[in-house]
C-alpha cells in the first residue's frame, strides 16, 4: 500500500487460481487442506454441546475439539504454526499478515489458535445481520423471556442468608446503578459476560478469598473510520484512470503505514448502485487503523469526502503467546464467559463460551458431573450414534 498492489484479485476464479499458483506455488492448495482439517476439528464443539457436554476450563474445551494440536497453538505464534505446517515465509508475509492486521490489528506474532481460526475463516462466507449485530442480543433476550435490568453492575459480594427452617444459604449480592438510582439483588449464580480488564470494566468483587481481580492483560486499540467519499486510487498504486474496481485493500507490514485496511461497505441487504453514485465514484468506506486518522492522512486516502465518523475502542486482547487463559470458574458459582477471548476473539467463540457456561452451571448445580470434562468425546459420540 502506498507503493504497489502486489496481488490483485480478478472477478474470475480461474484467473485468481492461476495467479496464486504462479506467485505462491502449492501453498494455497496446502491452505485449503490445512483449513479443512482445522475446521472439522473445530466443529466438534457443536456436537458436544448438542449432547449437553461442558468444560470447566477453556483449555479442556480446546483439547476436546482438537487435542494437543489446538492447545499447543496457544503457546506458539501463527507464524511458527504455519511454518511448521510447511507454508513459506513469503506466503505468510503476503497473505497471513494482512488477514491478522485486518482482523486484530496485529501481526503474525498473535497466538497460533486465534491466527489459525482467523485465517481459516477468510475463505468462508460471512453473514451480516440487517440492522446490526446488536439485534442478536435483543433477539436472544426476547427468546429467553429474560428480565433485563438496564443498569451498570458496580460490585459482587457473597452473603449468607438465613432460611425459614433455620438453615443458611450462600447467595451473591449484586449492586448496580440504573437511571432511577442504585439497586441491589440476590442471585444463586452469577455469569460475568464483560472483559475483566481495568480499562473495560469496573466491577468490584468484595471480600473474596482468593481475590477476584481484573488482571487479565491489555486489550488492543482499534480505530474504525467511516468515510463517504471518492477513494484516491493512485495512493494505492493504481494510476489514474484505475481500470479495475477498487473495493478492498489489505496491507502487509510496513512501519510507515498508518492504516491496517480499507474496504467499501456493503449493506446486509444489497441495493443496486445508482447511476449517480457510479458516475461520481462516491461510496462509504471503512478504515481500520491503530490511531485516529489526521486530516492530512484522510486527504491522502481520498480525492474528496463529505462525511467522516470515527469509533475508537479496545477491541480485542493483545495477543502474546504463550497465552495465560483466564479461568471459567471465578468462584463457587461465578462464571466468566469472556476469558475465551484470550484463545480467540470472535462472536462465534463468545457464543460457544456462553453455551458452555450455561451447561456447566446447570450440571454443577444439579450434580451432573458425568457431563463435565469428559474424555474422548469424539469417539464416544461416534460409537453411540
From TrEMBL:
<dbReference type="Pfam" id="PF07156">
    <property type="entry name" value="Prenylcys_lyase"/>
</dbReference>
<keyword id="KW-0285">Flavoprotein</keyword>
<feature type="domain" description="Prenylcysteine lyase">
    <location>
        <begin position="7"/>
        <end position="374"/>
    </location>
</feature>
<keyword id="KW-0458">Lysosome</keyword>
<protein>
    <recommendedName>
        <fullName>Prenylcysteine oxidase 1</fullName>
        <ecNumber>1.8.3.5</ecNumber>
    </recommendedName>
</protein>
<keyword id="KW-0274">FAD</keyword>
<dbReference type="InterPro" id="IPR010795">
    <property type="entry name" value="Prenylcys_lyase"/>
</dbReference>
<dbReference type="InterPro" id="IPR017046">
    <property type="entry name" value="Prenylcysteine_Oxase1"/>
</dbReference>
<comment type="function">
    <text>Prenylcysteine oxidase that cleaves the thioether bond of prenyl-L-cysteines, such as farnesylcysteine and geranylgeranylcysteine. Only active against free prenylcysteines and not prenylcysteine residues within prenylated proteins or peptides. Involved in the final step in the degradation of prenylated proteins, by degrading prenylcysteines after the protein has been degraded.</text>
</comment>
<keyword id="KW-0325">Glycoprotein</keyword>
<keyword id="KW-0560">Oxidoreductase</keyword>
Amino acid at each position: 500500500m502506498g507503493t504497489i498492489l502486489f496481488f490483485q484479485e480478478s472477478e474470475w476464479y480461474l484467473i485468481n487460481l492461476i495467479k496464486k499458483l504462479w506467485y505462491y506455488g502449492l501453498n494455497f492448495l496446502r491452505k485449503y487442506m490445512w483449513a479443512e482439517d482445522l475446521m472439522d476439528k473445530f466443529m466438534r464443539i457443536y456436537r458436544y454441546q448438542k449432547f449437553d457436554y461442558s468444560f470447566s476450563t477453556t483449555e479442556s474445551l480446546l483439547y476436546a475439539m482438537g487435542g494437543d494440536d489446538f492447545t499447543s497453538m496457544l503457546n506458539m505464534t501463527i507464524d511458527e504454526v504455519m511454518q511448521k505446517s510447511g507454508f513459506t515465509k513469503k506466503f505468510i508475509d503476503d497473505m497471513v499478515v494482512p488477514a491478522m492486521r485486518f482482523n486484530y490489528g496485529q501481526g503474525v506474532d498473535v497466538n497460533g489458535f486465534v491466527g489459525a481460526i482467523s485465517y481459516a475463516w477468510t475463505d468462508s462466507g460471512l453473514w451480516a445481520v440487517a440492522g446490526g449485530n446488536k439485534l442478536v442480543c435483543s433477539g436472544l433476550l426476547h427468546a429467553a423471556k429474560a428480565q433485563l435490568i438496564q443498569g451498570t453492575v458496580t460490585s459482587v459480594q457473597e452473603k449468607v442468608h438465613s432460611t425459614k427452617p433455620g438453615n443458611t444459604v450462600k447467595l451473591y449480592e449484586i449492586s448496580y446503578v440504573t437511571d432511577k438510582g442504585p439497586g441491589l439483588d440476590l442471585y444463586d449464580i452469577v455469569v460475568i459476560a464483560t472483559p475483566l480488564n481495568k480499562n473495560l470494566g469496573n466491577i468490584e468483587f468484595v471480600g473474596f478469598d482468593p481475590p477476584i481481580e481484573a488482571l487479565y492483560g491489555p486489550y488492543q486499540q482499534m480505530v474504525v473510520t467511516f468515510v463517504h467519499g471518492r477513494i484516491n486510487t493512485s495512493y494505492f498504486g493504481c494510476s489514474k484512470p484505475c481500470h479495475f474496481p477498487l473495493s478492498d485493500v489489505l496491507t502487509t507490514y510496513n512501519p510507515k503505514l498508518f492504516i491496517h485496511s480499507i474496504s467499501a461497505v456493503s449493506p446486509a441487504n444489497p441495493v443496486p448502485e445508482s447511476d449517480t453514485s457510479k458516475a461520481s465514484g462516491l461510496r462509504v468506506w471503512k478504515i481500520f487503523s491503530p490511531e485516529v486518522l489526521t486530516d492530512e492522512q484522510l486527504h491522502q486516502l481520498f480525492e474528496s469526502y463529505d462525511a467522516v465518523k470515527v469509533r475508537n475502542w479496545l477491541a480485542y486482547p493483545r495477543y502474546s503467546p504463550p497465552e495465560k487463559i483466564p479461568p471459567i470458574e471465578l468462584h463457587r458459582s461465578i462464571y466468566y464467559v469472556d476469558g475465551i477471548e484470550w484463545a480467540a476473539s470472535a462472536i462465534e467463540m463468545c457464543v460457544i463460551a456462553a453455551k458452555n457456561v450455561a451447561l456447566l452451571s446447570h450440571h454443577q448445580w444439579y450434580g451432573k458431573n458425568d457431563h463435565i470434562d469428559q474424555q474422548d468425546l469424539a469417539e464416544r459420540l461416534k460409537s453411540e450414534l
